[in-house]
Amino acid sequence: xxxxxxxxxxxxxxxxxxxxxxxxxxxxxxxxxxxxxxxxxxxxxxxxxxxxxxxxxxxxxxxxxxxxxxxxxxxxxxxxxxxxxx
Length: 86
Hints:
Elements: H1 5-40, H2 46-63, H3 68-85
Helix pairs in contact: 1-2, 1-3, 2-3
Function: Binds directly to 16S ribosomal RNA.
GO molecular function: small ribosomal subunit rRNA binding; structural constituent of ribosome
InterPro entries: Ribosomal_bS20 (IPR002583), Ribosomal_bS20_sf (IPR036510)
């Protein structure tokens, strides 16, 4: 445990940020899974599901949760799967 006041504050701030990141990552993964499930089941709203997932991916990249190349990879994979199923 840190003894310096600023180090104690950093521990608290990092804990808060970790929880936020976990929540955002969880929401991102859920959205991607929903999009994949919609594509697999050939649902009528699969384009909307993919659009929502792409939006979440872009938001995660903007916040620094994902590297921009990783975000592009995930979006391309979703788009490829959508086009193959169409």
